[in-house]
Amino acid sequence: MPPFKTSLCRTPGGFFTLPNFFGMDTAVSAYTTGVAQFLLMGVLCAVLPAMLYWQYRRRRWRAVAAGLVAFILTLDHLMLKDRGSLWHTLAATTILCGPPYLASVGFRAAMRRLGSAVSGDDPAALSWSNRAALATLTVVAHLLFFIAATIADIASPALLGVVGDAVNCLYHLARPVDFRSYGEQLNMLLAALPTLVLATLLQGWLRRRPTIGLRAPLLLSR
Fold first, then answer.
1. Residue 173, strand partner residues
2. CB atoms within 10 A of CB 161
3. Which of 26, 32, 61, 201 lies at a 20 to 30 A Cα distance from 207?
4. How far is CA 40 from each of CA 4, 22, 50, 159, 165, rounded to the nearest angstrom?
C-alpha cells in the first residue's frame, strides 16, 4: 500500500491508536508522524459533524436530511461488510463521508451564486421550449465532457488505485475493494461537474434574456 502509511490502517491496531510517547525504542520522528496522522484523522472525522451543524444553524433542512440519509445508508451497508469494531466502522464512515459532503455543499453554494449572478435580480420563468433546449444541450454537453474525460484518462488506474487503498485502509473488509474496473463510471461522474456549471450558466442566461429584450429562442448572442 505505497500511497498510505500502514499505521493509519485499521490492521493492526486501528488508525485511532495513539503513539507510544513513553517508549524508548522508537525514534522521535515516529512520534511526530504518529501525532500528525492522529490529528489528520481527527480533523477528517470532524468534517461531517461540523458541516451538518453548520447547515442546521442556517436551517437548511434539505441539506441536513440528505447528508444524514446518505451517511446512515453508507454506514448500514458498511456495517455488514466491515469486520472491525463498531466504533472503528463508525469513525471510518464519518471520515469517508465528510469530505464528499463538504465538496457537494460548496459546489451547490457556488452554483447558486453563479446562477443568481447570471440571471440577475428579477429573472423570468423559463418557457417549455427553453427547458427542452436546455435539457438537450445538457445531455449533449455531458456526452462531450465524458468523451474528453475518457480521452484524457482522468480516472486513471493509478488514481483509482489510490482511492481503493484509502478505502481498504479505513476498513477491514473480507475482500479488498478495487476501483480500477470502474473508470468509465467515475469519468461519467466527473463529466457531470463541468456539465452542471455550463447548464447553470445557460439557465441563468435564458432566464435573463427576456428582461433585456431578447425574445428569439436560443439567441446566444446580441
1. 82
2. 16
3. 61
4. 13, 22, 15, 21, 17
Q: Is residue 11 predicted with pLDDT exceeding 70?
A: no
Query: Measured between alpha carbons, how far is 143 from 195 in angstroms, rounded to an integer?
Result: 9
- Taking the CA atoms of residue 108, residue 164, residue 18 and residue 20 in that order, the dihedral angle to the nearest 10 degrees is -150
CB 9 within 8 A of CB 60: no
pLDDT at 104: 93
Directed axis angle between helix 86-119 and helix 61-81, to 10°?
150
Cell of 194: 463541468
Q: pTM for the full model?
A: 0.76
What per-residue confidence (pLDDT) applies to 209? 74
- Among 125-139, 146-160, 192-206, name the most confident range: 192-206
